[in-house]
Design goal:
Glutaredoxin; 5-stranded mixed β-sheet; 3-stranded antiparallel β-sheet; Methylamine_util_MauE; membrane; Putative membrane protein YphA (DoxX/SURF4 family)
Amino acid sequence: MKFIAQLSRFFVGILFIISGLIKLNDPMGFSFKLEEYFSEGVLNLPFLFPYALSIAVILVIAEVLLGVALLTGFKRKLTLVLLFLMIVFFTFLTFYSAYFNKVTDCGCFGDAIPLTPWGSFTKDIVLLVLILIIIKYKQIITPVFNKKTNSSIILVTLILCGFMGYWVLNHLPLKDFRAYKVGTNIVEGISIPDDAPKAEYQITFFYEINGKEQKFSDKELGNLPEGAKFIRREDKLISEGYQPPIHDLTMDKDGENYLDEMMAEPKLVLLISYDLDRADDKGLASLKDFANKALVKGYKVIGLTASSEEKIEGTIQKFQLPFEYYTCDGTTLKTIERANPSIVVVESGVIVEKKHWKDSDLVHLK
C-alpha cells in the first residue's frame, strides 16, 4: 500500500503542477470562470467580482507550489492540509457545476483540455481519494533535499510563477489554446460540412383525448383518434450533432450582422473590448493613434464590444476614436482575446496577429 501511496504522491504532485501552469498561462480566463461561479443564480457571491483575478492568480500559483512541495517533501503537514482543502474546494465547485448545470466547464485545465462537468467532478473525486491515501501514509513523504535546498526550490518556484503571471497579464498567454488563435481561418471555422452529423431530437406531442392527456411520437400523428385536441409539444435533444469551432461570432450594427463582409476584407483590424466599463482607460486612449496608423496603411478598422450604444458613443467621444464599434456577445469576445482592449489583425478571414494593447507598437502593419 505504501507503494501505491508513493505513486499517488507523484501523480498528484505532477498533475497539480501541470494544471496550475496551464491556468497560470491564462489567469484572466480562469478569473472569467470564477466570475461565472460568483454570479447570481450560481453561488450568488457578486461582491467577489472585483477580486476574481486576484483569487485566480493566488489559486493557480498555490496549485503549482503545492505540487512542487508534495514532490520535494517540503513541510509535509502543511502541504497535505492545504492539498486536502484545495481539492475539497475544487470538488465542491465541479459537483455544483455538474449537478446544477450552472457552469458547463470548470476551467480545471483552461482551454487546453476542456472537460465536461461530470468529467471534471470525477477527476476531482479520484484526486481526493489519492490525497486521502497520501495523508493516511504520510510517513512516505520525506524531504528529497535538505531543508535549505527545499526552501530554495519553493522560493524559486514562487518567483518564476509570479513572473509568469505578471507577464501574461501584461501581454498575452504564452500559448493560445482557444478557437481564435493566430493562424485560424474564421471563415472555415464557422462553416459546417455538408456531411456533418445533424442534431437529433425526440419530439413528443401531447393531446387531450376523452378528457385525458396522452402523448404521441411524431410518427404516430397520422393515427390520432378523432376529436384529439392538441395541448403542447416537447423536444428533447438526443445528440447535438456537429458544432463548428467558431459558432457564436457576430459583428452587429443597426440590426445587421456584417461578419461575412468583414471577413472578406483583405486588411482588417479588430479592436476588442468585451466591456467598455471595465476597459483600461490608458488602453482605450492608445487606440486612437494605433487606429490612425492602421487607417493610413489601408486597414479597415472597427471596434468590437458587448457594451450598450450609449456607452459606445460616450467612449468614442471621450477618447476621440476614429472608428466605429460593432457589437458581439461578451463571452465570445472574452474567448477571442484576454486583454481589454486588445488588437486582432485579420487578413481575408485569417487571424494573423494578436496583441495586448500595451504591445500595440509591436503590431506589424503592412
